[in-house]
UniProtKB/TrEMBL annotation, chain A:
Belongs to the bacterial solute-binding protein 5 family. GO terms for biological process: peptide transport. The lineage of its organism: Bacteria, Pseudomonadati, Pseudomonadota, Alphaproteobacteria, Hyphomicrobiales. This is ABC transporter substrate-binding protein. One of its GO terms (cellular component) is ATP-binding cassette (ABC) transporter complex. One of its GO terms (molecular function) is peptide transmembrane transporter activity. It comes from Kumtagia ephedrae.
TrEMBL record, chain B:
Residues 95-300 form the ABC transmembrane type-1 domain. GO terms for cellular component: plasma membrane. This is Peptide ABC transporter. It is found in: Cell membrane.
UniProtKB/TrEMBL annotation, chain C:
SUPFAM superfamilies: MetI-like. It comes from the Bacteria. GO terms for biological process: transmembrane transport. PANTHER family: OLIGOPEPTIDE TRANSPORT SYSTEM PERMEASE PROTEIN APPC, PEPTIDE ABC TRANSPORTER PERMEASE PROTEIN. This is Peptide ABC transporter permease.
Length: 493, 314, 291
């Protein structure tokens, strides 16, 4: 019986195999670097969760588009009260969850209340901090009242952490995600691949792909051969290192150099002597040669940054000239700080190539001005504990990939230990402002303050290297948020 | 015999108990909070506390140890912190990669080593002997992960005959799955084959000196026949002992090779689990492997007893 | 793998042993290779073709040339210099790990052989427990617990050397104890400790030396493996295993980077194994004649 089934399946596969010559392909194997720990975007910070599920399996009231714009999703339209505190969302009425249950306003209320509850395990609870109440007006209308106006509220609702889940399936989403999106979860071979298939009952425009597999290929050593052999047809966020020129010259592939929201910085403990002295931080900024770091740690790809802001954002100002590479100046500043004989410090590096490689280069560069860095490699768990939580560090290298996260510098007790009331004031004003021109101006001020204070060593914007089959269309070129949106992806010919 | 068996069984149980204490104690020292790791940089303290309670991380140590040991006795290894599925499911999922890999490389090792060792014994002192034993010396000295890299470069990148890494899963069909295991199996088998060939050769040379072999030769049987028919059969006992040992080694020793080829096997599971601080998975897999070694040793002890009457009498 | 040659005491004295050793091709070849590697490590303290702490990113991944015989790595460092400096790390880790194994294992084994009874049982059970742990996997676990680094790699490898040496020392000592000269010593009223030190140890020394060579070679392989998965020596300290890891991700563009560190490991291990074979051949002329 079983053997027969397998034979039948094999025969069907062969039939499909011969028919693909006629119609365009409808399957896709997509490589990703890290495996998600589980599949519930509302209960974990790992980017890999959203990279599989966002927009594909789960949807929220709003969504973020390919250029970072806010688009309607499960909410068809919305109205904002004049005081900016009340949002009334009109929901789509024909939406069903993948388990067949209906989507309605109760699910929205459940999802938002669950995310902001005291015992919530949502990793981005701050997104919902402004919410005061969520009321169900009727099955297709939800009214959300805020404690104070929040300019970024609609954007916040577009995050993967804010997707709508059903009360019946929420507890099991980690294992078997049930959403409303155009793809349904199919299978997860742990350590290896996650498969999603087309949802035939999708409310919106149907997708072109029948099935998509997200295969885990951790680094350059595995990604390059997998692409070349055709095992994998797309890696939207590739780390192929020095093989890039080779892939770029191969006509079978399309290579897209985009930007991420990842500001790669030399995190500095601003309260720990001697880094509490502005001159010392300025000296480090002068001693750093961004070009060598980008060449050595990022294969020459990546935009240098002078503050904590993405060059892709329209409010970006280029501040890389604030402290240009100048060893004499660096030594001079160290002398002013009373450290003409240099000093030694530690550099804790998480297990990512840009940090481990970049750290060695920075250590070599700082040695030229008399700063002797001892490199301490740490696993993510130890990094989170020692550096991020306990602030037991001097310097570290990490990429802050959350979009638009300049406000972290105003958080009390954040691991930079940075405290500047002038900066806090700018962020406070930003939170109360919804006028775009005004917001842009405030963002520029914020960037300038951070650059002048040389809070951290600002290195480069982590590049997004996307590589896919030249016949594949519709993948995102930039990543305004962490996602692999497959809704518009199709094979040409 | 019964007394001997009981004694060996007791020893096996004591070994397991001691090992479980060592494993548990060691992993308690690992720094890092699994709850923090699961929720990431921006998690709030109350979310962390809620998760810690949910995972039982706030129970006292002895309670956690006893829970864990009692669970294992019933084949319940607990739930993975990162995947939130039963650990046993993860192990089963991975063992279908590691076990076939270990078996294939063991088979390869035997198929290469025994003829090579016998050939060397047959040509003792001549060029063929020197050549195959020289190759064996190289095989023992080559780091298997480097050999694996060379294989990848040659067969996957250059000739494009097999995939460079990853595992499509058995559901993709027997052949694609076997193809993915081929290079890792060869890389693992080579050093094992080299050791086994040397053991085979010296065991054969030993038996060739025995009286019955001399008798067989005196009867006028050709040397080759004597070697392959008579001597090899008797030399198999030490060879099989080594093969048994190699099996447990291969099952656990694939960790680095699985990392080279990105195979979702047991070794890689442990490796990932360690970096993700998924301690319960590490504990489960290590204990399973320790139990395998203990079981193999126990079987070896019993077989010795069956063969050796002096032990039986004890 | 433990070597137990049937006769491990050179019965005809040291000079005859040396004469046999020098007649053994394995011994000569192994000795020369090992000496060369050791010399390379020593020289690296005083001189290397290039400074390995200086990163010249502009010179990255150059092919082998007159200026850089083995090419440069992804930071523009000279690969030959890296291999020279890396040899120090491999040798140090393996050597100290053997030291730990011998220092703890040999006394344990001798004690077990001398006292017998429950102590012997206890030592053997301890061995069983350690042997029950898959060595490489446990080394990974140990380095993960106590943090990656050369020192923890030494400990992880050293622990698994203890039962090996305990077993060899015990087996060797057990074979010595019934011999006439020991009986004579006992009759003369010497204590067990004194007999062990004066008569047993000298007679099993060569046996331990052979085992030491083998464990040394295995230690170099184990260290390379740990460094390759990132748990051994940490950058910027050069190590052969780490160099292979860095080379792996660049194999498409700079394949020679993966060649030289691997060859270095292989040649070193080969040399040590040949040396060990040569010594055990010289110890056991009967076995050698059969070869």
């Amino acid at each position: 019986m079983k053997a027969w089934t397998i034979l039948a399946a094999a025969a069907t596969l062969t039939l499909f195999g011969t028919s693909t010559g006629l119609a365009a392909r409808t399957d896709l194997v997509l490589g990703m670097q890290l495996e998600p720990p589980h599949l519930d975007p509302t209960a974990g910070a790992a980017a890999a969760i959203d990279e599989v599920l966002y927009a594909n399996v789960f949807e929220g009231l709003t969504r973020i588009g390919p250029s970072g714009e806010v688009l309607p999703a499960l909410a068809d339209s919305w109205a904002i009260s004049d005081d900016g505190r009340t949002y009334t969302f009109k929901l789509r009425s024909t939406v069903k969850f993948h388990d067949g249950t209906d989507f309605d306003a109760e699910d929205v209320k459940f999802s938002l209340d669950r995310a902001r509850a005291a015992d919530s395990t949502n990793a981005q609870k701050a997104l919902f901090a402004a919410i005061d109440t969520v009321e169900v007006v009727d099955p297709v209308t939800v009214k959300v009242t805020l404690k104070q106006p929040q300019g970024s509220f609609l954007y916040n609702l577009g995050w993967g952490d804010a997707v709508v889940v059903a009360p019946e399936s929420a507890p099991t989403n980690k294992e078997k995600p049930v959403g409303t999106g155009p793809f349904k979860f199919d299978n997860w071979a742990k350590g290896s691949a996650i498969t999603i298939v087309r949802n035939p009952d999708y409310w919106g425009e149907p997708v072109a792909l029948d099935r998509a597999e997200f295969r885990i290929v951790p680094d350059a050593a595995s990604q390059v051969p997998a692409l070349l052999s055709g095992d994998i047809q797309a890696i939207p966020n590739a780390s192929i290192g020095d093989a890039l020129p080779q892939m770029q010259s191969d006509p079978r592939f399309k290579v897209v150099l985009g930007s991420t929201e990842g500001e790669t910085i030399l995190s500095t403990n601003n309260k720990k002597p001697p880094f509490d002295k502005l001159e010392v931080r300025q000296a480090i900024a002068h001693a750093i040669d961004r070009k060598a770091i980008i060449d050595g740690a990022s294969s020459g790809i990546g935009t240098p940054i002078g503050s904590h802001f993405s060059p892709a954002n329209k409010a970006y100002v280029d501040l890389t000239g604030t402290y240009p590479h100048d060893l004499a100046k660096a030594k001079e500043l160290l002398k002013q700080a009373g450290l003409e004989n240099g000093f030694s410090a530690t550099l804790k590096l998480p297990p990512v190539p840009y940090a481990r490689d970049g750290g060695q280069i920075i250590a070599s560069q700082l040695r030229d001005v008399g700063i002797d860095l001892q490199i301490i490699p740490v696993e993510w768990a130890d990094w989170l504990k020692q550096v991020f939580t306990d602030k037991d560090y001097d310097l570290s290298i990490v990429s802050h990939t959350e979009p638009n996260d300049i406000d972290i510098y105003s958080r009390k007790d954040y691991y930079f230990n940075y405290d500047n009331p002038a900066f806090d004031k700018v962020i406070e004003e930003l939170n109360l402002t919804s006028d775009e021109a005004k917001r842009t101006e405030l963002y520029k001020q914020a960037q300038k303050i951070l650059a002048d204070d040389a809070v951290n060593g600002f290195l480069f914007e982590l590049p997004k290297i996307g590589i896919w089959d030249a016949k594949l269309e519709g993948l995102w070129e930039n990543s305004p948020i962490q996602a692999n949106d497959l809704t518009k992806v199709k094979w040409l010919d | 015999m019964i007394a001997y068996l009981a004694q060996r069984l007791l020893v096996a149980a004591a070994t397991l108990l001691a090992a479980s204490l060592v494993v548990f104690a060691m992993l308690e020292v690992i720094p890092g909070d699994p709850a923090r790791l699961m929720l990431g940089m921006n998690a709030t303290p109350d979310a962390l506390e809620a998760l810690r309670n949910e995972m039982g991380l706030n129970d006292p140590l002895p309670v956690r140890y006893l829970d864990w040991v009692a669970g294992m006795a019933a084949l319940d290894f607990g739930r993975s912190y990162t995947y939130s599925v039963p650990v046993i499911d993860l192990i089963v999922e991975r063992i279908v990669v590691s076990l076939p890999l270990a078996l294939i490389s063991l088979a390869l090792s035997v198929v290469i080593a025994i003829p090579a060792g016998a050939f060397a014994a047959q040509r003792r002192g001549r060029a063929g002997d020197a050549l195959s034993m020289g190759a064996a010396q190289l095989g023992v000295a080559i780091p298997n992960f480097w050999f694996a890299l060379l294989l990848i470069y040659l067969f996957a990148v250059w000739l494009r005959l097999v995939p460079a890494g990853g595992f499509p899963g058995w559901s993709a069909g027997i052949w694609p799955a076997l193809k993915a295991l081929l290079l890792p199996a060869v890389a693992l088998a080579l050093p094992q084959a080299a050791i086994l060939a040397r053991v085979t050769r010296s065991a054969l040379i030993e038996t060739l000196g025995e009286d019955y072999v001399r008798t067989a030769r005196a009867k006028g049987l050709p040397f080759g026949t004597v070697l392959w028919r008579h001597a090899l059969r008797n030399a198999l006992i030490p060879v099989l002992t080594i093969v048994g040992l190699q099996f447990s080694f291969l099952l656990a020793g694939t960790i680095i090779i699985e990392n080279v080829f990105y195979l979702p096997g047991l070794g890689r599971l442990v490796f990932q689990a360690i970096t993700q601080r998924d301690l319960i998975v590490v504990e489960g897999v290590v204990m399973l492997l320790v139990a395998t070694v203990v079981a193999v040793n126990f079987l070896v002890d019993i077989s010795y007893a069956v063969v050796d009457p002096r032990l039986r009498a004890r | 793998m433990t070597y137990l040659p049937s006769a491990f005491i050179p019965r005809d004295g040291l000079s005859a042993f040396l004469a046999r050793a020098l007649a053994s091709r394995s011994f000569i070849a192994g000795f020369i290779v090992t000496a060369l590697i050791a010399l390379m490590a020593l020289v690296s303290f005083f001189w290397t073709p290039d400074d390995v702490t200086k990163l010249v990113v502009g010179d990255r991944m150059l092919a082998p040339s007159a200026a850089h015989w083995f090419g440069t790595d992804h930071f523009g460092r000279d690969v030959l210099s890296m291999i020279m400096v890396g040899s120090r790390n491999s040798i140090a880790v393996a050597l100290v790990a053997v030291g730990i194994g011998m220092g703890l294992g040999v006394p344990l084994g001798c004690l077990a052989a001398a006292r017998g009874g429950w102590l012997d049982d206890f030592v053997m059970r301890f061995n069983d427990v350690v042997f029950a742990f898959p060595a490489l996997l446990s080394a990974v676990m140990i380095t993960a617990v106590f943090g990656p680094g050369a020192v923890n790699a030494i400990i992880a490898i050293g622990i698994f050397n203890i039962p090996v040496f305990a077993r060899v020392a015990r087996a060797g000592a057990l074979a010595i104890w019934p011999r006439e000269f020991i009986l004579a010593a006992r009759a003369a009223g010497k204590g067990k400790t004194r007999i062990t030190l004066e008569h047993v140890l000298p007679n099993i020394a060569t046996l331990l030396l052979v085992q030491g060579t083998i464990q040394f070679a295995l230690g170099i392989l184990a260290e390379a493996g740990l460094s390759y998965v990132g748990l051994g020596a940490q950058p910027p300290m050069p190590s052969w295993g780490r160099m292979l890891f860095d080379a792996q991700t660049r194999m498409m563009v700079a394949p020679t980077q993966a060649l030289f560190p691997g060859l270095a490991i292989m040649i070193t291990v080969l040399g040590l194994n040949l040396l060990g074979d040569g010594v055990s051949d010289a110890l056991d002329p009967k076995l050698r004649r059969r070869r």
